[in-house]
Structure of Large-conductance mechanosensitive channel:
Amino acid sequence: MSKARGFLQEFQEFAVKGNMVDLAVGVIIGAAFGKIIDSLVKDIIMPIISFILGGDIDFTSKFVLLRAPEGYTGPQTYEALNEAGAVLLSWGNFVTILINFVLLAFVVFCLVKAVNNARNRVARQEEVEAAAAPAPTPDDVALLREIRDLLKK
């Protein structure tokens, strides 16, 4: 029983450490941010591409039929063929997910770059302030200077 209690206590210490909590918050925010990127691609970027290419283009339903079920005579849509058990190469869904990934990676890159630039700016400012501020004169040196000045008189 004491081993189990020790194990649970060790797990609790591990789980509530700052890094673990930060990671959990990051994962939650990342999941929500991923949904924002999905919506950006689906609701904004893909309609613009459809408009430019002239037509209602929905990449998620683009596919190549590799093998239809034997005797299949139904509609040749992605949903119907998929439900019937056809072998499909769903390249359109892959392209959409790839666009999502590239956008997400670009946004994360921009955020990391901004954070790194801010850190570098703060570090440079601290270096400038450290170099600009003269080191305080030690008490013994100040005392020796006073004695020197008195002897000159």
